[in-house]
Amino acid sequence: MAVNNNEWKLVVKRGAPDTSNIKEIDQLFHISEDPFEKADLSAQNPRQVKKLMKKLNRFYNLKSVSQIPRFADKKNLSEPEKIPKWQPVR
């Protein structure tokens, strides 16, 4: 799972709970300076990791489809955008 803002991207890797590998790995990348995500900066920027993890945890705690943020119209945030039924083209 990943979350980002305009400058940073946090990648969180979690093992499956039914396996022996339940270790969580966090990687932080400075997107504009490292577009290929080669340098993990999580150890040098714990505050940024904490800030993005808080954002990611808000997503994990969503309970219903109506709580999932969509590409919202800034003028009308009270009603979420309807998701159209998608049918594959055959």
Task: Provide keyphrases for this structure.
single chain; 90 residues; 3 strands; alpha+beta; Arylsulfatase, C-terminal domain; three-stranded antiparallel sheet
Walk me through the structure:
The protein has 90 residues and is α+β, with helices and mostly antiparallel strands. The protein has a domain at 2-57: Arylsulfatase, C-terminal domain, CATH 3.30.1120. It has 1 helix and 3 strands; from the N terminus they run βββα. The protein has one helix at 46-60; strands spanning 2-4, 8-14, 24-30. It has a 3-stranded antiparallel β-sheet with strand order 1-2-3, with helices on one face. A hairpin with a 3-residue loop joins strand 1 (2-4) and strand 2. The longest helix has 15 residues, at 46-60. The chain is extended and about 45 Å long. The mean pLDDT is 77.
Q: How is this fold's topology laid out?
A:
Elements: E1 2-4, E2 8-14, E3 24-30, H1 46-60
Antiparallel strand pairs: 1-2, 2-3
β-sheet strand percentage = 15-25%
**Main pleated sheet:** 3 strands, antiparallel
Name of the top-level CATH class of the domain at 2-57? Alpha Beta
What separation lies between the terminal Cα atoms? 31 Å
**How confident is the prediction overall: mean pLDDT?**
77
Q: CATH topology of the domain at 2-57, anyone?
A: Arylsulfatase, C-terminal domain
CATH architectural label of the domain at 2-57: 2-Layer Sandwich
**What structural class do helix, strand and pairing data support?**
alpha+beta
